[in-house]
What we know:
It is a single chain. The chain is of the alpha/beta class. It folds into 2 domains: 1-43 and 272-403, no CATH class; 77-231, no CATH class. 28% of the residues lie in helices and 13% in strands. It has helices at residues 3-7, 100-109, 122-125, 136-147, 171-174, 190-197, 211-228, 273-286, 301-312, 368-392, and strands spanning 82-85, 113-118, 151-154, 179-181, 204-206, 234-237, 330-336, 340-349, 352-361. The two termini are 14 Å apart.
Amino acid sequence: MQRRDFLKTSVVSAAVTRGLANSEVPAHNWGNYDFGSGPKAFDRLNQGPFPQYPPNAVIPTDDVVMTTTPSEDVVPNFGKGLITYITADSGTDEIKSEAILPAIEDLVRFPLGQQLYIRPTWREVQPRPGRLELPEYLKIVFDLARKHNKRVGLRIQMSAPDYTREPALPDFVLNKVPNVDLVLTNQAEARSAKRFLENPHSRYQPRYDDAFFQSSFAELVGLLAAEFNGNPLIEFVDTFMYGGYVLGTAAARPIPLRVDKQPAFGVGKYTTAWDLARLHRAVHSATAGVGRLDALPGFGPNDARFLLWILAHVVDAGKIDRFLPASVPVLHKAGWITKARHDAGLVYLRGGTYVVAVMTWRPSGVGTSSDILAGRVAAVARARFLELRRAEGSTAGSSALSA
Length: 403
């Protein structure tokens, strides 16, 4: 088998890079660690890690017992407790009361709810360009949160299939940005697609690559940051994403950066195993200050090391690591839904590192067989690289191998 042909397989993309990896990934105390640029976080709960097992125990011979302290009152805790949804997918239509504003106050006062949650649309918070104009009910939510000593989590919706009375996007965006019509290509998805296709305001998506959309969206994010960054009433803000891809994927089947109708494969953009492999390799390379990620403004080696630390502490055995020796560190993150199951990560050997990315799909559903495949791919890759090292000598273990 030729090395280049092996590395071009569709389910694994691998690269061996310089460096030694110990068989053990020790826990690290991130207190006072320099994470590089970024706003200073105040009022933040220190989440550790605080390893209590040898040889990494913060306090030798310590034992940990978690219990609660009895209290007659509701005791707020960061990141814990019940969240009271004031509005969600359907906005204020979810409040089943003729007097909406008093009903909102009743929800805020609910004693077991320690945080509040709102999910307005872009149209509601910015009907015109240049400034935010929060609707009255959102202003009341923030006023009541301050009055009752509660914090607010929020998400801004750009697509809201359960809003039937108006679009989620403001008119100044809709009037200038082309749309992509959604079409049903798989009858098995008809039930979940129904809420989108039957709502005239959500049976399309905007062209996210349109220059005016990009500038308007950047303005929205900037306005939200100016309004809410450092605001003591904010508990969290949901993240946003539309697809994920790396340019240059699949030359024979390029990613459609411009689309007028929804493609047959079901989404406007897609991610391949090669994309995931390159992303993991880029994170690994960025820890040494090289590669594509290191060139991103505000992203440096400290950020990359922190991402690897997170991957190293993922507890999800039986996938890529299934057939590898227990002494081999595997830094990976799996993801799955009913019909798709994927795993991708970095495998650290003494003398080199390789990347494994396995993506599976089956219309009848996926399960353990996907994990077994991922494990077999990782094991075959490890055997192949060890064979190359034996055949080529120690030089091959410190040279870059790429597809």
